[in-house]
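Lay summary. Proteins are chains of building blocks that fold into shapes, and those shapes determine what they do. In this project we predict the shape from the chain. Here is one chain we studied, written as its sequence of building blocks.
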Amino acid sequence: MYLLGYDLGSSSVKASIVDATTGACVATDFYPRQEMLIKSPKSGWAEQDPETWWLNLKAVTQSVLKQSSIAAQDIKAIGIS
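And here is the predicted shape, written in a compact code that computers can read:
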């Protein structure tokens, strides 16, 4: 059984697959390779486009699944931070 964890930060989306039995990290990655754009339309404001988060989440998911050779249906839980 495997667990998939995401960390959605302002600079990138990180993902790791962990073996639930052993606690070992099977694969980890982040997207994009350069920091995501943060718009500041006014002083004290900070904005990001949620579509960018979604695109990077899909890319990092594909990467960790490929790295680990684990089938998506073998992921039994997902955590998001």
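What the prediction tells us: The first strand starts at residue 2 and ends at 8.
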